[in-house]
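So, can you check what follows?
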Amino acid sequence: MTLNHHHKVDWEALKDLLPDWGRELGFSGVGIADIDLEDHGGRLKTWLADEYHGEMEYMARHGSMRWQPELLHPGTHSIITVRLDYLQKQPAPEEILAQGDKAYISRYALGRDYHKVIRNKLKRLVKKISEYCENQGFHDFDSRVFTDSAPILEKALAEKSGLGWIGKHTLLINEKAGSWFFLGEILTNLPLTQSPGPQTNRCGSCTACIDICPTKAIVAPYTLDARRCISYLTIENRGAIPLELRKPMGNKVFGCDDCQLACPWNRYAKQTSEPDFEPRHGLDNVDLLDLFSWSEAAFLKNTEGSAIRRTGYEGWLRNLAVGLGNIDFKASVTAGGVARRDVVAALNNRKGYSALVDHHIEWAIEQHQPIISSS
């Protein structure tokens, strides 16, 4: 939609109002990006050519739409970007990771599905912008909101708009808030000028995220092989988890936060004030065996409105079987008092859901078989 430039709208004043409006809605940052993403588009093409996207065919779909937002939403002239903190402080992630009988669920998935939370907030921000435009006599405002829901290079846009820099683990880092936040966008036809940015990349010579990755998924600084990433393996991957990557998963059953936990910038991370991100069903501190006992009906009920739904019940059982296979009964601190026979019994009782789940159950049981001497 073309703008009618007869209207003398104070666009800079609108731009100055956006951060305050964003804060009122709970956003921890608001920026403006232009739509030139050709540079990032080239990097995406290289990443896809290396087949680092694994089974995520949707990453290769839509051609150049990912780095040409005006193809996604015709008439787009500028993009408003936002970030929303999601970190819950208690219990500390490290505490759960250290207890092998507990299920570790990525911090972002403990509460309500972030897509819904952010989309609602973005719509309210759009309403404020629309009212401003109307009051200024401008009636052609056009927009579309997104959050991890469209073929668009979110991190590149957030970086351009000054919300942070893309770190070596490929996540966005903000120098005052770390990386525990979600991103969202409003594609708009308004002629807003780009925010001063991007932030200076301050990863320096640090390789903490690369060194900590259990499956060595960060194959080079700023390059992630998703096929090795525990988040991909437990969520996007629909098939068997590669044998050599099962042990390194430990007790992670949905996602992984190791690279963020290792990042020095996260000492500045802010705790979320968003009630919707409060953990549900005690998932921030729950036993693997408890989750493994959920029926499909219980899984669907307990993950209603949650990002965990994405893995599906079959993927859920598969991931939990691997977690149960990784309990170290020799180390009482990681076994947490759970008995080997109870774990093996639970695994055996779960057989029969599907060939995929049975395959991972058999592997898990094998991990707990006493070593039989061949002599």
Notes: The CA atoms of residues 347 and 362 lie 8 Å apart. The two ends are 80 Å apart (CA to CA). The chain has a mean pLDDT of 94. The beta strands are 29-33, 78-85, 104-105, 143-146, 165-166, 172-173, 181-188, 218-220, 223-224, 252-254.
